[in-house]
Automatic annotation (TrEMBL):
GO terms for cellular component: cytoplasm. It comes from Bhargavaea cecembensis DSE10. It is found in: Cytoplasm. A probable RNA chaperone. Forms a complex with KhpB which binds to cellular RNA and controls its expression. Plays a role in peptidoglycan (PG) homeostasis and cell length regulation. It holds the Pfam family KH_KhpA-B. Belongs to the KhpA RNA-binding protein family. This is RNA-binding protein KhpA.
Length: 76
């Protein structure tokens, strides 16, 4: 899951070396914490959160039916 998020996010940002993703399991679900350079925050969130929503949709779809739910948190 971490690799998928990196593949999606790194081409979007100006500082790809500052992309950090932490993955942990909480309450039977996978929680991915995404952290980017402060200047790139708007690019990852997008207008009205559309890019962030698209990232979450792709990640949940890739996890597949019947598996654990995945939550992607974008950290400040």
């Amino acid at each position: 899951m971490k690799k998928l998020i990196e593949t999606i996010v790194k081409p979007l940002v100006d500082h790809p070396d500052d992309v950090r993703i932490g993955v942990e399991e909480r309450q039977g679900r996978l929680v991915c914490s995404l952290s980017v350079h402060p200047e790139d925050m708007g690019k990852v969130i997008g207008k009205q959160g559309r890019v962030a929503s698209a990232i979450r949709t792709v990640v949940n779809s890739a996890e597949g039916a019947g598996r654990k739910r995945v939550r992607v948190d974008i950290m400040d």
